[in-house]
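The data are quoted verbatim here:
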Amino acid sequence: MMITFRKEFLCEVVNEVDALLKLHFEELTRNKDRVKLDPIWTDYAALEQAGRFHVFTAREDGVLVGYSAFFVQPHLHYRDLMVAMNDVLFLNPEHRLGMTGIRLLKFCETELKKLGVQKLVWHAKLDTSLIPILHRLKYQTEEISLARFL
């Protein structure tokens, strides 16, 4: 079985994403009693059509096993700086052993660079393995986000 990576269009994979998105929600979403998984697909589609949203997939023998998606645009403070901000990253737990995750991250980097991205920003839950992985790939912690419900 072979894992392949591709840049795809959300409109073409949205029907395949459901099962993985539910796994993603169950594993990583905080405050499930207050938030419901209900993406506004029309807004994502509009951003994608404007060239400001990009989806990358991991497939095993054609079956979707992971995804990473980014908002891409010039930084509003620094007009000449093209930034990609990660929206979601998920790899089916069955495919996390080995280098699949790192290969997906590096594939995203390569493809985003082709799109003119100069800075790539990831967000990660503090208690997951993503932060140490990103540090090994030479990413630096720049900020920490804090949140509460009002």
The mean pLDDT is 95. The chain has one domain: 3-136. The CA atoms of residues 11 and 45 lie 7 Å apart. The helical segments are 10-28, 41-49, 100-114, 130-136.
